[in-house]
């Protein structure tokens, strides 16, 4: 199986490039600086970050990407020297600033891990509350964390491309081995590229132990491929899982503001859109106050409207291209032009009340026109939940080079 997939590496890498905002965003986009630290594919070793003196721990953490740091911050389970998230940890990591209070991580043994299998539903019972229902009765590895993050930003039009990427033998089914091997290849190739671009550390490559890659069956593997690992996925199965996950996270955000009601206010809609961005606090208040003043009689935003808008955000790159194609000199756009561009990118239309709310939020001078460049920049922050590269502090070798360039300019 591995050799067969290995022969298809060119196809796999082409597919990942095509996905765009998919797995490549989360596996290939970070400039990891490993500095000779051992990294098993898809695993984060607990003893690297929980032992030793504080200075060494700080040095270790400074060499990690933002996603690695966030995974370590929220992971509440340790098993066989590795860190894992629970399903609730994952939900918290994409909706909260900090993890839930805990004294220490839960260290699990083999018997406890196996007991989780019984509480893991089959994919036929998958729904939009899967992660919430499992709560802390499951484990998610770091590689799976990256995969799940990619699912949240993938447009539905990209679901088929993602499925074909995993379907390495082209039989329209994805089995457990294909799923694991493709994740393995993606991350392993990434480590190789990192070593080639690590400045003075380029002669040091991470030590990869292939035997450790799937040493434990995680909740995701049990859910998708069964306890025996002999089940496979059809495209419909794959689509349903990805759509359910996107919907579950959006439901979690929506219900936080709806408080049991069927709609959220336009003001709360603005708060949701701005919550993962680096908008300055004074600008944030200006956005909120603008909505208060311009929409005194609120009609509310339903969950279906909110979900449709978030699915549009997953097509943000296509929207940006469409806007550049039929606007000139980066001029602001009208609601009619906005509607047209959305329909071109997604094949669907957005509710007029929702689009009006968007314009009231981002139309600074109230002339009915939207500066789409500013809108796109802020919405990209929202889409990637603060993980955009320009939002992340440069570290390691890249920070050193940046510092030298700054000093030379001065």
Automatic annotation (TrEMBL):
Gene Ontology MF: a single term: calcium ion binding
Single GO BP term: mitochondrial calcium ion homeostasis
Keyword Calcium: yes
Domain named EF-hand: residues: 154-189, 350-385
Gene3D superfamilies the UniProt entry points to: EF-hand
Keyword Ligase: no
TM region(s), chain numbering: 12-29
Gene Ontology annotations for the cellular component aspect, listed alphabetically: mitochondrial intermembrane space; uniplex complex
Highest rank taxon of the organism: Eukaryota
Subcellular location field: Mitochondrion inner membrane; Mitochondrion intermembrane space
Alphabetic keyword roster: Calcium, Membrane, Mitochondrion, Mitochondrion inner membrane, Repeat, Transit peptide, Transmembrane, Transmembrane helix
Protein name: EF-hand domain-containing protein
């Amino acid at each position: 199986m591995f050799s067969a997939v290995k022969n298809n590496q060119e196809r796999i890498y082409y597919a990942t490039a095509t996905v765009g905002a998919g797995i490549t965003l989360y596996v290939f986009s970070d400039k990891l600086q490993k500095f000779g630290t051992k990294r098993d594919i898809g695993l984060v070793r607990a003893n690297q970050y929980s032992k030793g003196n504080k200075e060494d721990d700080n040095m270790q953490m400074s060499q990690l990407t933002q996603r690695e740091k966030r995974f370590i911050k929220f992971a509440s389970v340790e098993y066989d020297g590795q860190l894992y998230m629970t399903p609730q940890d994952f939900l918290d990591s994409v909706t909260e600033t900090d993890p839930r209070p805990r004294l220490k991580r839960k260290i699990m043994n083999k018997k406890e891990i196996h007991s989780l299998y019984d509480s893991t539903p089959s994919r036929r019972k998958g729904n939009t509350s899967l992660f919430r229902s499992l709560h802390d009765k499951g484990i998610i590895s770091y590689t799976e964390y990256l995969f799940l993050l990619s699912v949240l930003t993938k447009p539905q039009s990209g679901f088929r491309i993602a499925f074909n990427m995993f379907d390495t033998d082209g039989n329209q089914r994805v089995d457990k081995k294909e799923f694991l091997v493709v994740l393995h290849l993606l991350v392993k190739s990434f480590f190789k590229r990192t070593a080639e671009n690590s400045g003075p550390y380029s002669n040091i490559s991470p030590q990869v132990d292939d035997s450790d890659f799937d040493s434990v069956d995680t909740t995701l593997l049990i859910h998708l491929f069964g306890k025996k690992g002999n089940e496979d996925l059809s495209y419909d199965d794959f689509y349903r899982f990805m759509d359910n996950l996107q919907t579950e996270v959006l439901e979690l955000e929506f219900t936080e503001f709806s408080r049991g009601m069927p709609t959220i206010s336009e003001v709360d809609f603005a708060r949701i859109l701005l919550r993962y961005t680096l908008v300055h606090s004074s600008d944030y208040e200006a956005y909120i106050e603008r909505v208060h003043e311009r929409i005194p009689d609120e009609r509310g935003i339903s969950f279906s409207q909110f979900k449709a808008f978030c699915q549009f955000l997953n097509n943000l790159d296509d929207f940006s291209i469409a806007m550049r194609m039929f606007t000139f000199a980066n001029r602001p756009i009208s609601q009619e032009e906005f509607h047209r561009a959305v329909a071109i990118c997604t094949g669907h239309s957005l509710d007029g009340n929702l689009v009006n709310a968007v314009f009231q939020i981002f139309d600074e001078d109230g002339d009915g026109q939207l500066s789409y460049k500013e809108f796109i920049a802020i919405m990209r922050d929202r889409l990637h939940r603060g993980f955009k590269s320009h939002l992340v502090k440069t570290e390691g070798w890249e920070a050193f080079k940046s510092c030298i360039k700054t000093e030379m300019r001065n």
